[in-house]
Design a protein that fits this description.
The chain is mainly beta. It has strands spanning 23-24, 30-37, 40-47, 54-57, 69-72, 78-84, 87-96, 99-109, 115-118, 128-133, 137-144, 155-161, 163-169, 176-183, 186-193, 199-202, 212-217, 223-228, 237-242, 260-267, 280-286, 289-295, 301-305, 317-318, 323-328, 336-341, 360-362, 379-381, 415-417, 426-427, 436-437, 451-452, 468-470, 483-485. The chain has no helices and 34 strands. The radius of gyration is 23 Å and the shape is globular. It starts with 22 loop residues before the first strand and ends with a strand.
Length: 486
Amino acid sequence: MTVCVVEPSAADEGDGPPRAGCAITADGSYAARLARRGDSWFPERWTLDGPEPYAVPLPGDQPEEPGTEVQPMGDGRVLIHRPVAGRHTFSLLYPTGPGTGELPLGGIECPEDTRLRLLPPAPGGERAYALAVGARSSVVWLVAGGGHGPEYAPEYVAEVPGRCSGGVWLDRAGRLLALDRETGGRTRTVVLDLGRGGEMSPLLQIADGSDDRLLCADPDSGLLLIRSDAPSPGQHRLGWGVLGSTLPVRFPECLRLPECVATPFAIQPGQVLTPEQCAVALRCDGAFGSWVGVWRPAERVVRHLPAPEGWLTGAGTWTEEGVLQLPYATGAVPCGVARWTAPRRQADPGTAPSPSREDAAPVPDVTPAPDVTPAPGSVLVASPMPVASPMPVPGAVSVPGAVPVPGVAPARRTTVVLTTAPGLGTAAGLETAAAGLDTAALDRVAAPHPLTSEAPPEPPEPEPGEASVPRPVPLQKAPLGRLVTK
């Protein structure tokens, strides 16, 4: 599975993402959340890798505060972070018969102007990290998995100048961590190599004056989901690129959903060398609340799905087979997973024609200088098709009820199947923004290439009447694939 980060809202920009309904391990085996009982909160662990999901409550001696964070570990224990008067303490929780065991892991003292939060679950599930964001710098801490036993204290890992947000893992080893760093009024994504003491390298720099954030990354295919104002100064748009590619970042027109915000939260894993075939799950927030969108880079359509009742908003995983799993909790079903299978893509050139060369236009420069000529190859291809603006039909997926037993999950099927809401499909053209991968590679093989504004040569046009298919090529050359004829 791919762990993604939810963007910070305008209210807490730069201080980290708002918490999703729950946190899920990188392999999708466990989840953890703060559950509510009356006016009190308690940690709860979900097991997701069995035939049926089930929950185990892990209440402590006293109720938890709403600001408490929980995160599942790969062995089934739950990491809990409790902020109390400038001090942040960490413990591992685990079930012990009728009660809850707790292993203290130490704490971190932070100044008043510093905010500390857990980073998304690391691949492997053995370690957990936290990010402390101060006025001038941000510090990454290893808060679980250091191997020092009961007397363990959090370990300092690295300090990054500037205020950092986000947090996306780029590899399966849990070594490369991407953070969105704000310095000089601009936000750019950097990569920390935790295997080299937090050595920092640039990742995103789409334009000289753009704000660029990394939202999702899939280690298998290298697919990156990005939000940037490079193609439209003053308007942040959702785009995609590929780690290590020399092709430009693209900003599809179909991802510009009117009067709502689309944020990716899961990418289909296992699509090696074919990132354009990865299914991406989007959390859509608008006037009707929150719902789910599904999109592939190879398609020019977003499928809209009604969220299941009680969805732990912003949480979900993909299987390699293309099944989207959304955890939910209701009064009747305290631990459930709704499943939806993404249809396989069928090539139909007539439904979404490719943009023509005549539709190309220069990308506007984001710097306030008149009559700036864009770099060679820096073009924005306009869409030849209109953009639909559907909104989801209010409603929820009904789930059969069950009588919950305290501390024990119901031994019955708690899976529902989502279907695409009628009339909610949207088709639009594809845009290409001037943002490619930098030619200056990092000084190590494991590190990604920073993204810059150099565009590659254009692929040859297919012959009339012949179908275009993506051709997988090595990631370090051009993993996006070119449209070629058979």
